[in-house]
Amino acid sequence: MNELIFGSPIGPYVGTVLWTLNAIVFSYFIVLNGSYLITSVIAFRAVRRYAERLRSLDVRETIAHAGAPPITLIAPAFNEEATVVESVRSLLSLNYPEFEVVVVNDGSKDETVQRMIDAFEMRPFPKMSTFDVDTAHVRQTYRSRRHPHLWLVDKENGGKADALNAGLCYCRTPLFCAMDADTLLERDALIRVVRPFLEESHTIAAGGIIRIANGCVIEAGSVTEVRLPDSIVARFQVLEYLRAFLVGRMGWEALKGNLIISGAFGIFRRSTVIAAGGFSTDTVGEDMELVVRLHRYCMDHDLPYNISFVPDPVAWTEAPESLRVLGRQRDRWQRGLSESLTKHRSMMFRRRYGRIGMWVMPHFYFLEMWGPLIEMIGYGVFAMTLLLGWTSAAYVSAFLLVAIVLGITLSVSALALEELAFRRYPRVKDLFRLFLLAVAENVGYRQLTAFWRLRGLVRFLQKAEGWGAMPRVGFAKKTKGDPSSGGGS
Amino acid sequence: MIPTSDLPLQLAITAVLVLTAFTLSFMGYAFLLHLRSLRVERQRRALEDRWKGRLLDAATGDSAAAPDRDSPRAEAPEIDEDDRVLFLELVTKYARALEGPERQNIERVGRPYLGALDPLMDDPDAYRRAYALDILGELGYEEGRTRIAKGLEDESGLVAMVAARALARHGDPSHVPLLLSRLETFESWSANYLSSLLVSFGPGASPVLRELASDPAAKSRFRSIAFQALRELHDIESVEPAARLLPQEDDPEVQAEIIRLIGALGGPGQLAGIRPFATSSAAHVRALALRAISNLSDRRTSDVEMVSAGLDDPSPWVALQAAHGLLALGRSEELKDLAHSTSPRAPLAAEVLESAR
């Protein structure tokens, strides 16, 4: 084969291309993993300091004596009849001095609205919009007779960003929380996540950590016992989430370079978000796009600002347990990331955007957005190089081994951070399982996620739209003693 | 066979070995942390099991666990030296949940062991200092007052805030001047937080706050915080001087806080100073001015017209205040007409009327 290719007229070109691709893949590997290692070290220090800080300052007591800013929880709901009542009950039981809940029915085709009306005695109640933005038509606003701080906005379908904008129209508090209707917030999550707004008056956004509820024991809308999921697919995601939040977000937080606040749980200053134009409806990654735009808006207008990640307020979410659904989710995340970065790529390498423009955006653009493409090319190029006899199996094996061990190191460091500060998985058995997963994910799962991300990138380049269905089982089933809960193993 | 003389390969093998060593160390570290956390938790639980009943008895004054006020050490329970800080943490947890005499009883249980905090107070780590000061503030305020006040001068903003909150909890206004002189340390904290901290000192803090509020040389942010605190303290005495200052104020935040103060505590006599702000360029100042006018007005036509005009303000917040204002001025008929009209403000009128039902 070697002779066949190099004996032909295109032989020298093939050699040059392969050499170039090898160099790109190798450089990408070094830069990406170097940045991950640096972020891990920074995150380690940040988490340790944060744990000490938590010990020295009782957050509940802080709020009890402070002017806690009122918050509106905006929960878009689309076909959530199975979970909406349970989720709203859970929201109403949150421990926070002053908050409103605005559930936005985004044109559900099921009984979401009727379930809300029946369960909470919602009645039509006029409310004026305070945000001049185009949204899909709002049919009716409702207020609960039993819980006057519970509102329902019934509107035609327009997507999550549109629903969040509709919720913002009826938000009257200085802060709002953007979340998913099926997210379970821990009772003191708001108290904890609002801390940056008290300590740093220029804070415009703060996000908490998202954890996976699959396998946990859930009673009355609260996670009462934390366990690993039974499903191996969901277990891999536990590890991924720990790595993404404790290493990634915490590291970027320490560098003041956070570009993402999860759409499942983030608190924002209403006035700044409205001034920046609200949520963008032309992307599937409205959460990241908003954060990037907030950076841009504040720097364009020379406004002092702070965007924080807080690692202890927890929002529990249901992770997909089938590869098909997970693949769709990762595809969408990659499209969202690519759309947000491409939309604001003019921020890159411009001094006026400070560290965000000079190295955070380039990092995400070149390494996270184009990364899956380079990674997949890498697998192909390595195979080709090996087939052509350009390198020995020993080289390729050594390189792959470095990549795998590096992956394990990063995952295990995330577990160490979890143990250092939060220790949410109390069983030693679960810790060992997570160690094993850190090894196992490198064979198969990691390549699969790279493939899904690549598919997302390709679909972004093809300008594909839509979220893809994300069927929910619902938390209500996962109650203690329920054999269907999957939490008893 | 691996050609070990090959440099790139050697580098790769070294990298694998180093990373494996790191991974194993992280694993060991995570595992040890897990075991340590389990041990501390067990220790904490054992301590709590051992002391829960006695602490609750002590709180209700039923037990010898609460030593006599005059000779605290004589009947104090014996706690191992290693457990004392944890014990104090436990007592603090209970103290925070209680009030009145029960709380004082609990505080007395912890008091003999406060000496265990001394090494932490001088620790180079600010978090440990803050932790110790927090417990001292809860359990040993009387004895530790000077030490806590000194915490205000700590180089760490966190320690200074813990000290400020400890002093505020006990509401001794004699510390307010020192706290105000250190406000720069808390510059980044939110205005609401700082104002509620000042309010915790009680009405005794008002004279110093009045001084700060009327000091033109002070930072506008601190002055508006002082006005906010005075309003929350219902300090009537500050209204007249504030009304005199209002026409000369340039800063919209200070203007807003003065108008809120007058609107909440003032009378019709101060209205003349507020009316010009109904056309301020800052929307929040306009909104507050309309609210103050509708609160204080004797329902004269010119005021009603001014408030009514606010319904057409481009800011929805001003319009909202105007609608509430019209209701307060007894003009619900006007709102009803608006609610049944095709005006873009019809939903606002309907909302305000519905809320009033």
Write the layout of secondary structure elements.
The complex is a heterodimer of chains A (about 500) and B (about 350).
Chain A: H1 2-7, H2 11-56, H3 59-64, E1 71-77, H4 84-92, E2 99-106, H5 112-120, E3 122-124, E4 138-144, E5 150-155, H6 160-169, E6 175-179, E7 184-185, H7 189-193, H8 195-199, E8 203-212, E9 217-219, E10 222-225, H9 232-254, E11 265-269, H10 270-275, H11 286-300, E12 306-317, H12 323-343, H13 354-369, H14 371-387, H15 393-421, H16 428-440, H17 445-461
Parallel strand pairs in A: 1-2, 1-6, 2-5, 8-12
Antiparallel strand pairs in A: 3-4, 4-5, 6-11, 7-12, 8-11, 9-10
Helix pairs in contact in A: 2-9, 2-14, 2-15, 9-15, 11-12, 12-13, 12-17, 14-17, 15-16
Chain B: H1 7-60, H2 84-97, H3 100-110, H4 118-121, H5 126-139, H6 141-151, H7 157-170, H8 176-181, H9 191-199, H10 206-213, H11 220-232, H12 239-245, H13 252-265, H14 271-274, H15 283-296, H16 301-309, H17 316-328, H18 332-339, H19 346-356
Backbone shape of chain A: globular
What order do the helices and strands of chain B follow?
A: HHHHHHHHHHHHHHHHHHH
Looking at the structure, what is the overall shape of chain B? extended
Strand order of the largest sheet of chain A: 3-4-5-2-1-6-11-8-12-7
Proportion of residues in extended strands of chain A: 5-15%
What's the multimeric state? heterodimer
Report helical residue fraction of chain B.
55-70%
Largest interface: A-B, 49 and 54 residues
Structural class of chain B: mainly alpha
Q: Any low-confidence stretches of chain B, pLDDT <50, length ≥5?
A: 68-75
